[in-house]
Write a structure and sequence with these properties.
The protein is 30% helix and 34% strand. By secondary structure, it is α+β, with helices and mostly antiparallel strands.
């Protein structure tokens, strides 16, 4: 840790002794959250999320392709994250680095393992042709907690997605695509909640300054039934059992609040 980071860590720890944070929030308090959907005209679904000063843009494209050999009757979902250099001086152009790969995997796992998208309803010709869903994430401004901002953006974008109806003609072996659209079959709403551990404190929704000095990080994704679909620990450090249990309970509570906001935005259209 460099000198400036050491000074910042001491400052943050001194604030935490008084139950305060660098931006004045409580330890369990999220930054202001703003969500918009249908912001990309040519995408099947899209969402823009601002969490404090962190901003992400998520676009959904739906195509047709071959299923995975071991899942012949299920559609395919793939997540890609681009850390745009304009979002942070630490982001560089080029192929995805380990941070972008981790971010994509955590978001993808939260959606996939929760069964959020009913992939079995996306088969057109089982074993041959299925819908392929591309979740493309662009980080526009990085001020901490990209995991939650991206996860919220991804599920909001999926909920806003509409796909054209298709019919497969067995005689001609061709697919007819109609101008009639229907919602993507989404039945679960997984929401990630991330904690930074600094000293003996767990902080919800860490800003970038807190992430730079944290001892560890844990992200817990839960659905509306309080079922955990993924847990990701990062940045080294360790968590005691009671800390993990506290994080799970808090994640369920915070996810419920965020989920209500997502649904309000989707309903408003």
């Amino acid at each position: 840790m460099d000198v400036m980071a050491g000074i910042m860590r001491d400052h943050i720890l001194n604030l935490l002794k008084e139950g305060k944070r660098v931006d004045g929030r409580g330890l369990e308090e999220y930054r202001d959250l703003e969500i918009r959907v249908n912001v990309i005209e040519k995408a099947e679904g899209s969402a823009w999320v601002r969490l404090g000063n962190t901003q992400v843009l998520v676009g959904i494209k739906v195509d047709m392709g071959e299923p995975f050999p071991d899942l012949p009757e299920r559609g395919v979902i793939t997540t890609n994250v681009e850390l745009v250099p304009l979002a942070s001086p630490n982001f560089e152009p080029g192929p995805p680095d380990e941070n972008a790969i981790e971010l994509a995997r955590v978001v993808d796992r939260g959606i996939r393992e929760s069964g959020a998208v009913e992939l079995d309803k996306l088969a057109i010709v089982p074993g041959k042709l299925v819908r392929v869903i591309f979740v493309d994430v662009h980080v526009l401004d990085h001020d901490g907690n990209l995991l939650d901002a991206t996860g919220i953006g991804a599920i909001a974008a999926l909920l806003s997605t509409r796909i054209p109806k298709v019919v497969y003609n067995e005689e001609t072996e061709e697919v007819e695509v109609f101008d009639e659209y229907e919602p993507l079959p989404v039945s679960r709403i997984p929401i990630p909640v991330t904690f930074a551990k600094i000293g003996s404190n767990l902080l919800v929704d860490p800003v970038l300054d807190e992430e730079r000095v944290m001892d560890g990080r844990i992200t817990i994704t839960t659905d509306e039934n309080a079922m955990i679909s993924s847990v990701q620990k990062g940045e080294g450090g360790s968590f005691k059992l009671e800390e993990v249990m506290y994080a799970v309970d808090t994640a369920i509570e915070k996810a419920s609040e965020i989920r209500e906001k997502v649904l309000e935005v989707i309903k408003a259209g």
